[in-house]
């Protein structure tokens, strides 16, 4: 799984296809500077592997590391820089997970992270919350900050017991501009009988080295699976078998892509198949949960039932959340709760109140025969609610989006698994997905073009349903809006103001243009007008193979452009492309009305959840037509005054 040096440069192969030579040249220079570092790092990793084999006798838990060598050889921020020259605010140098038998009985898991960070690193990487297993313990063995220059320890963080002792936490504060963070903790599970786990390999940051080691008794059944079909190195040591994965240079998980790529993972254990998955799901659904609080009981006890489901789910959704390293703690009576805990609480409280609810689960892979399954893979429940106030419609609640009942649901589709009503297996079904018309992204350009060639006005972009949560965080800041505009336009137009407003599952961004000079002819009687080129950057995710692939959600897009022209102006209308039909549709129209208003409209609809090789040309044609529509020049002739 070693990636080639080309992927170190923000996917330089894509840049080779672009006409901008300057950008291409910069990328190639950065790529050249990184090749020697890449080769040295590979050699260093191989040397460490050989050395460990010869001198450490395959220890069950090995957490030694050489900080100075890491600083000299491991990639820095510039290695993963994109076209803008800025890389991520963090790089995981080492992620190490080792599992084995605990000396005191049961199972022990040790985890280490070594991370290069700088100002701007998301807070989740500075706060580490490890749940205390039932009957077990958590111990932080190291929580240190190092200097990237000298490799010397410059600070530590003290672990604390949080949330009534259910979580052990470490938080780093007042970090320098650039730093190296080391976190190492041990979890013990005295009552656990199985040595199994599910480990995400890809993270929101690039990961240079991932090392997973599992030690089991010799002759013990052991199954494994991974997203990249990578096999572990297997070694027998006395009465034990050790399985080890070493994965180099995993790209950061892409969050803002319309193409569903899937997170990389490694799964292993001795339990396999749907029956084992059903037993684990049944255990997850039967965890002890606290009773509903007074605020929820008051809502459920009202005589008027209209809106009760939505109010209860909104109350749960708005409670403080927490990100834990696993889901092994006892569910507390008070927030913060994890996403999984919130769904389980909603299911319990609504069911007790007589609501018709069903619980299903999203799994990272299909639990077929010979495929290992563990508790760590049972983390994403989905609640189906059919209540009197939803007019018979089924509403899905998974805490990924605010609750909406009756007409504004966000159905993301996908395969889910539920316990069979009879038997001990699982029922597999396709969850309903919202149609394209419900996920609409609309842009309205209300522009004025004067005789001096100055284009001004407003642009209003409305994101509905799934678009709202794909494009914006929960509470977007001014920086978030600036990033949104840069992702939507090939070149962001000059603007004097930008505002954000929303209601229910609809968000509106309004941009006030400060005025742009169009190209004027030398004699002053011609203007070559061009629109602010609204061509979203994620279009490129959909225009290349391999096929088939899944998209995040079905969608529709439309743009409406209105020019108010002066009395002396006349637009020479360009030709229009013919309307297409099928699951992928595109249409456009251009006209001038009697009030001297020029109107141009374009619509694109992708009414499909996956794109096959046969449909790819239709999608490419629709995207190309949209691009041509937004980037074309409009010749305008001015009559003599």
Describe this structure in words.
There is one protein chain. The chain has 641 residues and is α+β, with helices and mostly antiparallel strands. It is built from ten helices and 33 strands. The strands form eight sheets. An eight-stranded mixed sheet has the order 5-4-8-2-1-10-13-12, with no helix packed on it. A seven-stranded mixed sheet has the order 23-24-22-21-28-31-30. Strands 25-26-33-29 form a four-stranded antiparallel sheet, with no helix packed on it. A hairpin with a 4-residue loop joins strand 30 (584-592) and strand 31. The longest helix has 35 residues, at 21-55. The chain is globular and about 90 Å long. The model is unreliable at 1-32 and 46-58 (pLDDT under 50).
Strand order of the largest sheet: 5-4-8-2-1-10-13-12
Backbone structural class: alpha+beta
Distance between the termini: 70 Å
Largest sheet: 8 strands, mixed
Task: Describe the oligomeric state of these chains in a short phrase.
Answer: single chain
Summarize the structure.
This protein has 641 residues and is α+β, with helices and mostly antiparallel strands.
Attribute tags:
641 residues, globular, 33 strands, alpha+beta, 8-stranded mixed beta sheet, 20% helix, disordered N terminus, 10 helices, 7-stranded mixed beta sheet
Topology summary:
Elements: H1 12-16, H2 21-55, H3 67-73, E1 90-101, E2 107-118, E3 127-131, E4 137-146, E5 153-156, E6 160-162, E7 167-171, E8 178-189, E9 197-200, E10 207-217, E11 223-226, E12 233-237, E13 240-250, E14 259-260, E15 265-269, H4 273-285, H5 294-300, H6 308-318, H7 339-352, E16 356-362, E17 380-386, E18 395-397, E19 415-419, E20 426-430, E21 440-449, E22 454-464, H8 466-471, H9 478-488, E23 495-503, E24 506-517, E25 519-520, E26 526-530, E27 549-551, E28 555-564, E29 569-571, E30 584-592, E31 597-606, E32 610-611, H10 616-631, E33 633-638
Parallel strand pairs: 1-10, 21-28
Antiparallel strand pairs: 1-2, 2-8, 3-7, 4-5, 4-8, 6-7, 9-15, 10-13, 11-15, 12-13, 14-27, 16-17, 17-18, 19-20, 21-22, 22-24, 23-24, 25-26, 26-33, 27-32, 28-31, 29-33, 30-31
Helix pairs in contact: 6-7
